Amino acid sequence: MASAANTLRLCLRNRAQIPCIRPSVLKSQSPLGRRALSTSALRLAREEKEDTSHLEPVFEFNKTWNSPGEFLKEHLRDETISPLERQQAAEMLQTWEQQPESKKREIEQLRKDIVEKAGPLRRPVLIKRDSFWNANEKDTDYVTNEFGEDDFEEDDILSMGHGKLEEHREAREYARLTVWEMPLLAKFAKPFVPPADGECLRFRYTSYLGEFHPADRKVVVEFSPPDLPGLTRPQRRKLKLLAGPRYNPEKDIIKMSCERFEHQAQNKRYLGDLVAKMIETAKDPTDMFEDIPLDTRHHTFKAKPKFPKEWLMSEARQQEIKAARTNAMMLDEQRKTDGEMVDGVKVITGALSRAEPVVHEPVMASRRSNPSRQQSRPQMRR
Amino acid sequence: MSAPNCLRGCLVQRPAGGAAATLLRHSTVMPATAAHFSTSTPLHGNMMKPQKPGPKSKVLLVAKQWKKGKVADRGGKSPLPGERKAFRKRILLSNNNALPVEGLTYIGPGDLLDHKNVGKVMSIPDAAVDQLRTAEVFKPTQTWSIFRKPSMLVRSETVDLLNRMHTALGKEKALRLVIAGDRITGKSMLLLQAITHAYLNDYIVIHIPEAQELSIGATEYAPVPHSDPVQFMQPNYVLKLIQAIRKANEKLLAKMTTIYSHPDLPQNIPVSSPLLALANSAKEPESAWIVFRALFQELTVKGHGRPPILFSLDGLAHIMKMSEYRTAAFEPIHSHDLALVRLFTDCLSGAVSLPNGGAVLAAMTRGNAPRVPSLDLALSRRAAEQAGRHKNQLPQRPAFAKDYDDRVEAVLQTVELLQLQGVSKPEARSLMEYWAASGVLRSLIDEATVSEKWTLAGNGIVGEMERAALLTSRF
């Protein structure tokens, strides 16, 4: 959870030797300090009485940090230290005193810089507890300071522009690959060698290009019974019977697969053994299953209708049709001249003209007929 | 109109549960926008006029509650029981609105055997029409009702079939044949032509018009006494059949006399009494099957001036499966265990011979026929045999297949098969000329028209030609 930088920051903050821990901050914290890696939230302690005792070391650190010479001198005045420590302190004091003034100023400048730069890093994170969903809580996983990160300062293109550029970069990367790297693959190309007479088993493997996949262990074997050497016709038939629904009668191929074992090689070995066992059983003359017909109900034979050759329009066919049409026309002409042509329209008009005109008797309008109903009937559109 | 405006217009104009009527009423407000999402201008000119307020039509928000089983009263007299079916099944053989066709001749006894008549349309003589009607050979789906008098096209298949019947008659054998073919190719019509020929040539005709009536469990049945294995008779149907036979073949039956004494008949029929008396003795359904057996026995006596018999059935597939009947033990009854069906299948298979010649004809039906794999297989085997295929190359039952029936295949072991297809173009022309002369086809009948209809009808399938030319409302 915590990134390295965050851990470092937490550690630094708790190290007593590091100066510049402001008293105001320490005051709000417990005197023991925060644990470096804690899953529990920081709680503000109750307001305690003004206790200056815990401030003392801070001032001491500041003093030490600000002027090492004074610190060493004071240290030497201490009676409780061991002679070895005293000697070391004396040496250090001497070294310090011998430093030139410019060097001392440089160190002073460095100290100031460190204090200035490291200050914000060491600032403790206070969570506003009463905010909605702790909305103001910073994500401590980020190294960056989140403040103002998304503000657009008119000095960049928009993120969509960046995205577009990224697309271009990607495309160009693949283009480079295509141009420079792919031709090198031709070195690995192998010429296709058709399987020899003895190689009648065709195995199929699945690879997910090095990735783990539950299906990459699967091996499929296909073979055609007539390809197997040394089998008689009844033995081949028995082999097909043994294969059951794994036999495809349309292609005359037996197809089996195995993914029972963990590794591809194991599965392949199993399939190879199985084929060998099947052939052995097929050759076994004790029972040749002659009374059992070959069952092909598992397979649907799909008929693919093809355009019949006879239907293709040929020169001869065209001539034939032309002749038939001419013949039909001649027949019609002959019938016309003989008066044998039957015309349905003429028949009907002739019959109507011959028919006696129908005289409708006047009928009294029925009283019961409802006039409003008649009106409401839809009129035929003209 | 901008999109939000348009939307607002719609919302304003569409009342809750809005109906077309209310929309129109509102259209006085925005007449130009009556159809909100239409690109065409509104047609009604008077939509612009302000309409009278009129009584406000209430829009029904609640769907009407329909009570189950209650029929809306439309104010008319509802048809009596059986009236609807009678209307549906009625046979109209004449139509005075159709024009009489000149030069139409009646079929004579030998006309359907003559190859010269192929492609002619000929009328059925009136006497034969009555007989055919009695035997229920006409079907309501055939288009008799739009012509002046029942006439039919003599096809080459007709002449072929009847010549085969004639040849069988000479050999004193029965022609056993199944008429198969696609839908509406004229299978029932061919059967009708054969029966017409039979009536005109003094055959005794026993015709079962709808095989499904025997097997769908619609008529009464009872076990035949002393039959082993048990068979079932259908007394009511058989009584009706005897009456039809008696009525249609009355003259012939009156001429013949019985030669057996039939002790188990309900009525004493002494030897050498007319067969008509025997047929008349079937008064009650209970005795119908016994009388029918006796009649059949008398008719199939060799010699004694017995005429040939035509035993025919339409809808063969219906009697080639398990029937809808059940035994007392609630086991389904095979159709071949029904006595009348058994008699027909025995005749068809040749187990019962017709010594005076004649024919056993079975027409297939494609309209509502059940799927009978054994029947299909048997017919395909017969077709392969007729095509001259070797015995070893006939179609076989698929291994492991179910639904196959040995009894069905045994019946159809030796029958002949007639595959009906479309009519030839000269036949089609002749038929269409008859239609045009009857005034039901309003067009000039030339080669182009004939060819068009012939092609539209899937190479001259007669029923499809009728559909393409006659049964269309476009005039």
UniProtKB/TrEMBL annotation, chain A:
GO biological process, one term: mitochondrial translation
GO molecular function: structural constituent of ribosome
Residue intervals passing through the bilayer: none
Superkingdom of origin organism: Eukaryota
GO CC, alphabetical: mitochondrial small ribosomal subunit
Biased composition annotated in UniProt, kind: Low complexity: 366-382
Chain positions covered by the region annotation Disordered: 358-382
Pfam families: MRP-S28
Span of domain Small ribosomal subunit protein mS35 mitochondrial conserved: 191-311
Protein name per UniProt: Mitochondrial ribosomal subunit protein-domain-containing protein
The organism's taxonomic lineage, starting at the top: Eukaryota, Fungi, Dikarya, Ascomycota, Pezizomycotina
UniProtKB/TrEMBL annotation, chain B:
InterPro entries documented for this protein: Ribosomal_mS29, Ribosomal_mS29_fun
Main location: mitochondrion
Pfam families the UniProt entry points to: DAP3
GO MF, any single term: structural constituent of ribosome
GO cellular component: mitochondrial small ribosomal subunit
Gene Ontology terms: biological process: mitochondrial translation
Residues making up the signal peptide according to the UniProt record: none
Subcellular location: Mitochondrion
Entry keywords, A to Z: Mitochondrion, Ribonucleoprotein, Ribosomal protein, Transit peptide
Family named by the database record: Belongs to the mitochondrion-specific ribosomal protein mS29 family.
Name by which UniProt lists this protein: Small ribosomal subunit protein mS29
